[in-house]
């Protein structure tokens, strides 16, 4: 039985990555719990593990006395000498407890504690693995779509660990149709601990998804030559992204677009056709705001005294383009630049 314990611990460490020391601690806890259950909560037992000889021994510590008043914690001098060979009054002796003598309930308790220990360790390992993936992109496989709520369950994996994650309706792109078995990229917003294991919060609408996709597709962003300064997104419809080059010889927009548009087209495909406007960032707020209103032409940007508002003058024939359908272009430009933008046609001056 003892050898089986140690072999099982080694197997668990190999297959699940749970340290032997952790499982030995849980087995000790299980044996002590079983002993206390059978002995009315008496807490005078110790467990010793001999890894070399693959032996687990349990001892109960008792005080040697003349007259026994508490059999659970005391032993008579005569009995102690009979069992151990030598003993003196006042000694605290260790008497081995045979685990096979545990009752059925005690053995079951030990088994449950060990199983629980394995589960806790697995959850801990999964939590640590997925915590390192916060604010990163992961690929998941759609396993179930709830017909009532529309929430999508995905199986996502990191190295050898996998877990279930839920893509709620609020984090799904409008009009995006998902089917069981689809492989999709998701953004890991947060990983939380829960009683049922790690809870991985994922999103398809988060601006961070677009940022990470550009980092994957554009080497110049990944190595830091080109920097993403800001992103404004209305998922499923349009995204504006402001980029800046730390090398004057590298065009940040050209790097993001890629040869024959290959890089940005790959991102658009992953976003299921979402339009992406790539804007050149500028330290000059007026230039930055004018670029952010692309594809509309801008005549002039007047910054107001509060430093966070501006008036933009555009040609009359560019007014609707600057504002965009249902105000989207102006709204995204304002979000991208952090400025409140008031757009006026040239004829209104």
TrEMBL record:
Membrane-crossing residue ranges in chain numbering: none
GO MF terms held by the record: DNA-binding transcription factor activity; RNA binding
GO cellular component: cytosol
Pfam families: KH_NusA_1st, KH_NusA_2nd, NusA_N, S1
InterPro entries: KH_dom-like_a/b, KH_NusA_2nd, KH_sf_prok-type, NA-bd_OB-fold, NusA_N_sf, S1_domain, TF_NusA, TF_NusA_bacterial
SUPFAM superfamilies, per database record: Nucleic acid-binding proteins (SSF50249), Prokaryotic type KH domain (KH-domain type II) (SSF54814), Transcription factor NusA, N-terminal domain (SSF69705)
Start and end residues of each S1 motif domain: 135-205
Cellular compartment(s): Cytoplasm
PROSITE patterns recorded: KH_TYPE_1, S1
Keywords: Cytoplasm, RNA-binding, Transcription, Transcription antitermination, Transcription regulation, Transcription termination
GO annotation terms (biological process): DNA-templated transcription termination; transcription antitermination
CDD domains: KH-II_NusA_rpt1 (cd02134), KH-II_NusA_rpt2 (cd22529), S1_NusA (cd04455)
Protein purpose: Participates in both transcription termination and antitermination.
Family, similarity comment: Belongs to the NusA family.
PANTHER family listed in its UniProt record: TRANSCRIPTION TERMINATION FACTOR NUSA, TRANSCRIPTION TERMINATION_ANTITERMINATION PROTEIN NUSA
Quaternary structure note: Monomer. Binds directly to the core enzyme of the DNA-dependent RNA polymerase and to nascent RNA.
Name of the protein: Transcription termination/antitermination protein NusA
Organism: Papillibacter cinnamivorans DSM 12816
Gene giving rise to this polypeptide: nusA
């Amino acid at each position: 039985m003892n050898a089986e314990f140690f072999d099982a611990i080694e197997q668990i460490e190999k297959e699940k990555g749970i340290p032997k020391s952790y499982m030995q601690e849980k087995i000790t806890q299980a044996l002590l719990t079983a002993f206390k259950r059978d002995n009315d909560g008496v807490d005078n037992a110790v467990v010793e593990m001999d890894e070399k000889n693959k032996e687990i021994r349990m001892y109960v510590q008792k005080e040697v006395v003349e007259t026994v008043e508490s059999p659970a914690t005391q032993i008579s001098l005569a009995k102690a000498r009979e069992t151990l060979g030598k003993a003196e009054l006042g000694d605290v002796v260790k008497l081995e407890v045979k685990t096979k003598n545990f009752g059925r309930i005690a053995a079951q308790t030990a088994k449950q504690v060990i199983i629980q220990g394995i589960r806790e360790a697995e959850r801990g390992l999964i939590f640590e693995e997925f915590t390192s993936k916060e604010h990163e992109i992961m690929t998941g496989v759609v396993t179930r779509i709830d017909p009532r709520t529309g929430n999508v369950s995905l199986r996502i994996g990191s190295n050898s660990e996998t877990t279930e994650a839920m893509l709620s309706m609020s984090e799904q792109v409008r009009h995006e149709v998902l089917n069981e078995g689809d492989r999709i990229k998701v953004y890991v917003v947060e990983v939380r601990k829960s009683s049922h294991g790690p809870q991985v919060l994922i999103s398809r609408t988060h601006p961070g998804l677009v940022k990470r996709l550009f980092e994957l597709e554009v080497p110049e962003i990944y190595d830091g030559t080109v920097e993403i300064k800001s992103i404004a997104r209305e998922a499923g419809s349009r995204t504006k992204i402001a980029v800046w080059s730390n090398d004057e010889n590298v065009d940040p927009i050209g790097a993001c677009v890629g040869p024959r548009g290959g890089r940005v087209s790959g991102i658009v495909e992953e976003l299921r056709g979402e339009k992406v406007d790539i804007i050149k960032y500028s330290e000059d707020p007026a230039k930055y705001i004018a670029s952010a209103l692309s594809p509309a032409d801008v005549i002039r940007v007047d910054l107001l005294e509060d430093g966070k508002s501006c008036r933009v003058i555009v040609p009359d024939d560019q007014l609707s383009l600057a504002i965009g359908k249902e105000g989207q272009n102006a709204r995204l430009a304002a979000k991208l630049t952090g400025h409140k933008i008031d757009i006026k046609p040239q004829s209104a001056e």
